[in-house]
Each structure stands twice: as structure tokens, then as C-alpha cells.
Design brief:
Blueprint lengths: L4 H7 L17 E4 L2 E7 L2 E2 L2 E2 L11 H23 L5 E12 L7 H16 L6 E7 L8 E9 L1
């Protein structure tokens, strides 16, 4: 019997949180054919932001990386809620990362590795993905990081 994505999460000491309810006029997940899009997720822990503020100011890159990892954990909770089983993920196609940061902050890629590394740890080679990382002046609720995703499912 092969190891499942949930088994891999457990081996990392992680469990899926409750999928967050959208706070505006959008849905958390949309599936069309075999593609599943997950709306941007924040670094929530038990419904509260892990940190607030901007990278390059009050948020150090290591805390930003932890926040990106939490964002992906919340993305995975949305996948589980949408399709019922992370084992149905065939491929992580793309991750999009948004970093609230000061104009001189340049460590976006290192911060986003928090999400990317977790995707690979959970899905193996199928977790390797295309991605974008973008610095922005602010994010909802003063979150430092937000991550969105596109999955191939079957």
C-alpha cells in the first residue's frame, strides 16, 4: 500500500486545518474538467493570521517562509474540501505567491519556497510546479503572504 498525501503530511507533523470560508464574493475552489483552481489562501492557524505586516519591515524572511507554508496547508484544506481526497491530485500545476513587502525587499523566491517545498514534500515529483512570486503593497487583513494554486485532478 503506497503512502498517501495525508500520510506524508502526518510524517511532517502536519494536519489539514478546517477549510476557510470565503469572506467576500468568491468561492474557494472552482473545478472545470480536470483542473482545480484554489483561491488565494492566507497564513491562518485556527482561524487567525500567524503574523501581520510587511516583509522587509516587521516580518523577517524566515517568518514569511513559515507563512507561505501555512498558506499552502490552507490551500490543501481547500483541495480536500473540494474533491474529498488529496490522493486525487495528479499534479500541482502552478502556485502563485503574493508578498506584502517594502519596496526594497528582494527575497520573494526564498519566502515562496515555504509553499513550494511543502508541495513537493506532500506530492513528490507531482508537486513540482510552475510559479510566480509578486511583491505587493498590501494583502487582505494585513497578511504578509497569500498563495493561490492550480491543480490537475482525476
Amino acid at each position: 500500500m503506497s503512502e498517501t498525501p495525508l500520510d506524508r503530511l502526518a510524517a511532517l507533523g502536519l494536519t489539514l486545518p478546517q477549510a476557510a470560508t470565503p469572506v467576500a464574493t468568491y468561492v474557494a475552489a472552482v473545478q472545470t474538467g480536470n483542473m482545480l483552481v484554489i483561491s488565494g489562501q492566507l497564513p491562518l492557524v485556527e482561524g487567525k493570521l500567524r503574523a501581520t505586516g510587511k516583509l522587509g519591515d516587521v516580518i523577517a524572511p524566515e517568518l514569511g517562509k513559515e507563512c507561505a507554508r501555512l498558506c499552502l496547508l490552507n490551500v490543501l484544506a481547500q483541495v480536500q474540501a473540494a474533491i474529498g481526497d488529496l490522493g486525487k491530485v495528479k499534479r500541482v500545476v502552478r502556485l502563485g505567491g503574493f508578498m506584502a513587502c517594502t519596496p526594497d525587499f528582494t527575497q520573494h523566491a526564498a519566502v515562496m519556497n515555504g509553499a513550494s517545498d511543502l508541495a513537493v514534500a506532500v506530492f513528490g515529483d507531482a508537486g513540482r510546479h510552475a510559479r510566480s512570486t509578486v511583491g505587493v503593497p498590501s494583502l487582505p487583513l494585513d497578511a504578509p503572504v497569500e498563495v493561490e494554486a492550480l491543480f490537475e485532478v482525476g
